[in-house]
Amino acid sequence: MELPKAYSPKEVEDKIYKLWEESGFFSPEGLSSVASAKEDRFTSRKFVAAIAPPNITGELHIGHALENTLEDIVIRMRRMQGYKTLWLPGTDHAGIAAQNKVEKQLAKEGLTRHKIGREKFLERMWEWREKYGNIILDQFKKLGLSVDWTRTQFTMNPGYQKAVETAFKKYQEKGWIYRGERVISWCPRCATSISDLEVNHVPEKGRLYFIKYGPFVLATTRPETKLGDTALAVHPSDERYKKYIGQEIEIDSVDNTLPAEQPPQIKKISLKVVDDISVDKEFGTGIIKVTPAHDLTDYEISLRHNLPLVKIIDERGKMNENAGIRYQGLKVAQAREQIAKDLETLGLIEKIEDYDHNVGHCDRCDSVIEPLPSKQWFLKMEELAKLAIEALGNGEVVVHSEKWGQDMKNWLTNVRDWNISRQLWWGHKIPIDGEEDVLDTWFSSALWPFAAMGWPEKTKDLTEYYPTDFITSDRGIRYLWQARMIFSGKFFTGSAPFKDIYIHATVLTKNGKRMSKSLGTGIDPLAVIEKYGADALRFGLAYQTTELQDMRFGEDTIIMGKKFANKFWNIARYVLMKLGDDYEITGTRPLGSEIISKMDSAAESVTKNIEKYKFGEAAHELYDFIWHEFADKYIEETKDKDDQETKNALAYLLLTCLKLLHPFMPFITEEVYSKLPIKDKGLLIVEKWPS
């Protein structure tokens, strides 16, 4: 059978994906039907993974493409090795992000959620989810992901909601849930607390104000918080300030009781000097003002030294009554400008310097975060953290990077109690009477590997397919998600939720910048697929995957992937032409040939590298063997040959390369396989992996 002269991804990909879906081979039940004359396959060994559920607000980006391509490579190889594979898909309700989307829609209509009320607002949320919530899953199909769509989950499905409620109550029974006032990260725009881990620290150009505090000069980027100072702090070993430790120091400040219309005047206040190891001796002048209500580090200092909290910024990001009538009602940025002006007038500013520093922004809406005291629900972490540390320490969970494994243990060792409440309407309502808050989205996501299989019910899936074997993500959610899944799995099921964690690279632009649609640096994988084909994108991403933490994405390797696909297509055309119409491929390994030995060596190396999650090395090995050993050398040697031995070698090489390349480039390999002269042929997706 002859192949067309050129490979056209657009004519092949949708057709092939439909074949896979209709075959049922994405599900373990479908695999159970596969048998050969000599052996039953897919009957005992299992390999299970759960997709990192994308937000229902999401669209495919390069990070998704990389992460899920790598996971699909593992899944496809394991399936061909005879494992009964299950790759579980689903989406996350994405509390803050999804609520923001609908609130923006309402704003265009001149409405707010408060105007229409909670019930109507939640109706709008569900309407939005039904319309847009599965877009990214459809986009995953364009990438060729072999997930079991029949098991698609959503973190707000009734069964999943039951899992979340059960988890909360079990924590409550242990006495680990409590309500208390703490300084937390607050988003004035979203009007909710957010996790410290969801604060993006963005480099910004600011100003460093050197302010006179009695005998000292202090450097700060936030002079407006001076009104909430309750102490000064120095490092215990800083000889410059040792004699002041424990003393009350009288300083000049601004009289905030005077209206803004009047000229500023000095007011005397007293502040105690404390010593604390968190003070950086090298920052500014080595002495800091302590504003416990509006800085997380200062709050920790206040706990150690029993200092009071004075809240001067409210939940709208404005100065409150404690800031005095002079500044009350001003937005933070306005208050900073006004108080700096007042301090300068009073001669209390020594100098002001330009200063580059990181400013916390909300991960969802990009507003500047305000640390402030708030009454929230917390989950005690001490015992849960121990469960995860133990699993990481004894090898029950293996992080495939010693650096990230140790990093995760360090975080768990020093973890604070988890603020699990959010002041949102969309999400899992906290199951306590009269409580209007919802749970942090990551609370429900932490249950994903077992809740998605039906826990707390003892379902067939939970019995057969939990715990899972493999999970991957970038480093950004190793605490938010992976560490929390480990202790959740251990606590609720007695087993860690997965065996292997692979932390993949973070994808940056070619110039090393963060990818962002809003910054104009984002790249749409669907546009890349449209231009070059899904196989080219998949192979190019895998080819670039190394042990490095970051990957600079450029189209060069995707173009290379496209050329490689075309090269492989031409190899297949040549082999089929050489075999002729009467040849039947049996898959039998020819004996006594150098190229066959090289093929065996390459197959062994590719297999080991995928099993060790060394995707780049496996891709390089395939590329080098197929292009150089097979095409450049062996095919050139066979151009004047037409004997049976040569045909057998060509057939074996093509079939073996198809199998090895399939996890990386599933579409073109399945299409070529469909043209091979093989008796009783099925689909390549369930062909036997080379051994």
From TrEMBL:
Coiled coil start-end: none
Catalysis: reaction(s): tRNA(Val) + L-valine + ATP = L-valyl-tRNA(Val) + AMP + diphosphate
SUPFAM superfamilies for this protein: Anticodon-binding domain of a subclass of class I aminoacyl-tRNA synthetases, Nucleotidylyl transferase, ValRS/IleRS/LeuRS editing domain
Domain Aminoacyl-tRNA synthetase class Ia: 15-432, 435-553
InterPro entries named in the record: aa-tRNA-synth_I_CS, aa-tRNA-synth_Ia, Anticodon_Ia_Val, M/V/L/I-tRNA-synth_anticd-bd, Rossmann-like_a/b/a_fold, tRNAsynth_Ia_anticodon-bd, Val/Leu/Ile-tRNA-synth_edit, Valyl-tRNA_ligase
Methionyl/Valyl/Leucyl/Isoleucyl-tRNA synthetase anticodon-binding domain: residues covered: 594-690
Domain of life: Bacteria
Keywords on record: Aminoacyl-tRNA synthetase, ATP-binding, Cytoplasm, Ligase, Nucleotide-binding, Protein biosynthesis
Entry's localization field: Cytoplasm
Major site of localization recorded for this protein: cytoplasm
Stored CDD domains: Anticodon_Ia_Val, ValRS_core
GO cellular component, one term: cytosol
GO biological process: valyl-tRNA aminoacylation
Any Pfam family: Anticodon_1
GO molecular function: aminoacyl-tRNA deacylase activity; ATP binding; valine-tRNA ligase activity
Protein family per UniProt: Belongs to the class-I aminoacyl-tRNA synthetase family.
PANTHER family with a match to the protein in the record: VALINE--TRNA LIGASE, CHLOROPLASTIC_MITOCHONDRIAL 2, VALYL-TRNA SYNTHETASES
Assembly and binders: Monomer.
Protein name: valine--tRNA ligase
Native organism: Candidatus Yanofskybacteria bacterium RIFCSPLOWO2_12_FULL_43_11b
